[in-house]
């Protein structure tokens, strides 16, 4: 808001927000009147117009031509009460082409056409209603979380159009944040008083900690300014200590595209307290907040995040700078009481300081913008210079001081400086076209600038700096300048300059602007006219001397949607330009070519080269533009769009005339809230084409401009918008240049960036699998070694969803190492990371939303990023890795390429007396089960009745007696930790020789109550059976998982199948062990058993298969102390053979107590199941199984059951009872479901929930 920069409630502000009345000149009628008096109006919340005397709002009866316009009870949700300006003096229903018209009978209605009766001006002026505006007030304290006041609001049967002390026990002004006050949310109104602020007794400064508010950075800054304060700037350790311990509160630190990080109130950026990995290089992370959870408290963030904030006021107002006069001997140059001398002899910083002190001075200290402007404009400074100044942090790292011990009151860093993590860069130099500062190693050799006190008396040997200029005029370059001694209007000042053979000063570049600052910046007058105005054309600014506009330096909210003449400001904001009414009376600056100087004509305009394919010429400029549009997923924020345009060799489009003319971002934005809109390519803002009523900086968050290509109102007009919105965009490049690729891509799809290749894989894999993928392509999981590299990778994943593995590994001692072997030189952890509570989170992912890092279990399957050197071959893969070699220590047994303890293998569990054994599976984070060693979940063996609310896993093995019929070993969840029994694994030790994997055919191996021997001779099934019988043994039966697991390993190690004791030709046509044991456990392969093959073997994969018995293979003999059950003779008969084969699958009928059963595990409907049973039910041709006659018993049971059910139903209907929950209107389930996704931007808990109104 104009006039609010100093936070004062000046007369300009009062008129800007004060009530007004509107009238129509064509009819002479007021818009609203009562008793022949025009009613006062005021803009209020939500684009409404409030009638102050009636406490009502201006509204329309409908959205059609002829609808009456009158006053109604205020309703902030009604679209019929929202208005906007068109062409200055038209009032239209918002977003409608319906305009207020004052008719001849004094009635008011909506019309679609525009005529004399539609134009409304503030009574007694020529200005329209939009020259006034609504003052948005952010609440303080209360329970509204800092929300804007709602005006008017209805409280205790009264309407309030402004803040009130009604019902306030403390007599503090307050307001509601909702129209009806139904949720009773309120807060105090901002004032300039510090009565309720905290005071620093040492410095006298005042602090207001708004810990319960939730505002964006810009909103927080506005709230402080409304209280004649500023967001906190921390300039020394004592101030940091005073506010430390506070959690997530905005500071006044903001990122400027030219000067880097700086304090919004203009305080010097001399003290650094960044947290590890901060500030972040992410696009749009231009603001900083205080976070006590961080190591050093300051963290950068997107300015749109909602946080609390700290307002600050100086205890004693700063005294205005005093202009001092003095004299300096040649070659020293005087300015404001000091003498300056620029040396181009290169010395180290300490040597330069010694040289300056020999001359009676010190390295220069720059106290304000005027000193800075003088240094770069009047000492012969060149844009190629790099010159030492006196600023350094040699005494205290991160705290910069002047070498002459003067107070640090001003800084002008270049972007990215001072360096955060470089301890060796302790001394500061000035360089570049704008003379910005950079910290460097003090041992480097550069030129330097000395400064000393000036003399009060002349010695007669001073340098004449104004050769070629008349007395009283000051020379800069080839021109002379004069400051007018009287205040005049713009036109009168222009005429006065013309009468002296000069013109109102133009400004060609930043150095010229700096000279003018050194000339008038310290003077007490607030403004000085320059020769720029948009008097002729509202959209176009021109110099009075007709020179092309090459440079602009607008103040905040300037030039805006207004017409006027340009004046330079002085004081704290010296050098910025304001657009003022041309009839204001201000002092002025004249300019003319110095005597003897030669005017240098600009080079002749050359025919610009052609634009590349797909690019279009921008007017007559040597610039080509291109509109980038596509699906919404490809849209970008303003910062992302700017970075994209720069990456392809250009910038966002800047527009300098109407000929330069989907919706898309252009390069106009507010980079510094103390400065107005600027073009991102650095060109001047000499042309503007805002949409009617824009820019309005809605909610103080609209700091970027978009080009409205297809707007129904004005084609090609501009609108200010939130920079974090996603949009299309327009790029520009120089004519004749070729568009660079945003990122080069290799032929196999990897992105090229700074000597490395990167592959973003969106297939989810565990770390082990992801590394295998990367390594086979000559890379590894990505290491991240700088903020820039992290930002590059984050940009690639920011528009996707989920996390991505990078190659950082976290050891149990919380140390870190990159898997590709590079040293850890950069980290970027998320809040409360790395996680130190779960020791199985040893891998790291990058989040898509901010690029922060989080630990996770390595077995979690997620997306990942590969990285390889640019010298790596493309389109090729490495050979598969060789199986690791080595052996195992005592008490450990080798298994594959891993070492597992005896207690881990199922074959050894039979020897363990404990029934519960820990394995490495857990769900500590309750988001799924993962192995503690981070391996993939390729195999699980869950038991029945598993409770998903438990977190840890034990193995349940019924060792004694093998009582589990279906499963000998299962799993279940357990909350309790068993401290004594566990099993684990470790890597192979290459120093231990592994014994050969051989099997002694003469040895029986004990497994439970059985002993097993492998016969490695290839025999038929019958020969194998006879071989076992010759040793008083039988072909093996596999009655439990112990034996199955053992033979599984044997078959795998031998890489050969094994006959077992199943042959249905010897057991009545169905499978049963030949030693008499029933088949109560089986692991058939797919499509097994086969109907025509009677003998069974266990394959190398552990699955059972059938074969013809005359085939030859190895076999397994078993000696057992267990006795097979005796077959009962109570149920004689045999089950039939199933001849029906479905989907290549045959089945076996199994006998049980006089009946035959066939089990089909396919899921089908009941009718289909019944038909299938019929198809399988062919009767046996021989003697039928014995049947038990149960028909009479079944009929009797059904009759008794039916009778009891009828009686119970009758009694139930007669008895009184409550409604069941599904039909009871008083029953509801209010327990919320836990969210699947956590909003990391939610910084204030329950910020939207209502609370009871507090005592005022």
What is the fold-level CATH name, i.e. the topology of the largest domain?
Mannose-Binding Protein A, Chain A
Counting H and I runs of at least 4 residues, what is the number of helices? 15
Helical fraction: 10-25%
Percent strand? 25-35%
Q: Could you give the count of β-strands?
A: 72
CATH-derived architecture of the largest domain? Roll
The average pLDDT score comes to 81
Task: Report how far the terminal alpha carbons are from each other.
Answer: 30 Å
The rough form would be described as: elongated
CATH class placement of the largest domain: Alpha Beta
Task: Give a structural overview.
With 1256 residues, this protein is of the alpha+beta class. The protein folds into 8 domains: 19-131, Trefoil (Acidic Fibroblast Growth Factor, subunit A) (Trefoil); 198-313, Mannose-Binding Protein A, subunit A (Mannose-Binding Protein A, Chain A, Roll); 333-453, Roll (Mannose-Binding Protein A, Chain A), CATH 3.10.100.10; 489-593, Mannose-Binding Protein A, Chain A, CATH 3.10.100; 616-734, Mannose-Binding Protein A, subunit A (Mannose-Binding Protein A, Chain A); 751-869, Mannose-Binding Protein A, Chain A (Roll), CATH 3.10.100.10; 892-987, Mannose-Binding Protein A, Chain A (Roll); 1005-1127, Mannose-Binding Protein A, subunit A (Mannose-Binding Protein A, Chain A, Roll), CATH 3.10.100. It is 12% helix and 27% strand. Helix 5 (369-378) crosses helix 7. Residues 1-14, 897-904, 951-983, 1179-1194 and 1216-1256 have low confidence and may be disordered. It is found in: Membrane. Its main location: membrane. One of its GO terms (cellular component) is membrane. This is Mannose receptor, C type 1b.
